[in-house]
Amino acid sequence: MEKLVITGGTPLKGEVIISGAKNSAVAILPATLLINGICTINNLPNISDVKIYCEILESLGAKITWNTKSEITIDTREINTTVAPLELTSKFRASYYLLGSLLGRKGSATVGMPGGCKLGARPIDQHIKGFELLGANVEIAQGKIIATVKKLVGNNIYMDITSVGATINVMLASVLANGTTVIENAAKEPHIVDVANFLNTMGANIKGAGTDTIKVTGVEELKGGSTYSVVPDQIEAGTFMVAAVASKGNVLIKNCITKHLESITAKICEVGGKVEDYGDSMRVSCSKRPNKATIKTLPYPGFPTDMQSQIGVLLSIANGTSIINESIWESRFQYTDELNKMGAKITSQGKTAIFEGVKELSGAPVYVTDLRAGAALIIAGIIAKGTTNIYNLEYIDRGYENIEEKFRNLGAKIERVEEK
Ligand code: EPU
Question: Are residues 380 and 247 in the same domain?
């Protein structure tokens, strides 16, 4: 079993380069299934979710060439099955995008119920409602979702809940449909704009991505033939922002889109951090104990749920008592039990947690409960007194590229070791 061993107490200093966005990459890869041609995608993050997605695409008939460790050329002219391999699709959440893409291109899709981090109930009713309004028949049987249609036809679809996944999935399904689809109450996250930009680059006609109304005018075919670069990861950048402040460090975060980080920047400044915004990079520093804050997670442009655990570490050592209200996921406070093992004083009930700030954390053995909790525990280890051992690293490897190397380059004392 692998673990991370961190000796805390070093302020982070230096530069870090942010990788391509995980949640864009895992939507753009299945989106290639809509293309009757060849395309190149670069700035892909080197993470296990991307590798698994490439394996799934190959099992469906796609031909993938790795040009570099962050660039692939993918030929999706011949897709010979619409049944996705169950053992791979159950490994993560984003496998549900195969439904929209395969339904759009081939008129049928069989995909296992998606897996992913356990954050509470993760229904997909809005995805299914969208497909049905486009004319598909969707059944769930023996742990699989089976969707079929003769030809998808555009429709007006109002999302009852703002959902990143459902917005992208319906957008994927409607790209090759007959007529026009209007998605209302659409999610507005940067990766939704990224997927729309990718599809438009390949020949789709999508307007309004990034607003709450997206209009997709069906086209006959996506021809591909272009190269597309995945946007920088908003959450990875936010993770390093929090780490810089929590460790009383000074870090230049390169290759980020600072516009995507506004809600995080606002909270970093509120707790006493300093942010110098250069548009595609930012310097984040702090020299004192953070102030308390109140945070509510919300869909974009609100404060992202995927940054909740990381900022929770900062609030656990703040001067005063802070409150976080998690409005997206039912069970996203599991990491607080681990932080309490490190000396934090956090009580959580339902979707609210109260952080009574302590002066310092102390190293302990801790267990990662989900991807972002993993990033949070690394930050906690970096600022704690003594040694922290972090277990269950597979969650972290799903979504952060070379995380320990990036932290080590900033001065953190962090090693990955094999424990027998
Ligand atoms: N929801 C429904 N019905 C649906 C879909 C969603 O009720 O059909 C609810 C969910 O239960 C949740 C809320 O709507 O309460 C928002 O869920 P959403 O669909 O937006 O989440 P998702 O698409 O499953 C993506 C990210 C998550 C991120 C959320 C929210 C990917 C692969 N995952 O999940 O990322 O937390 O959006 O921003 O894009 C992560 O990266 O660590 C992660 C969990």
Answer: yes
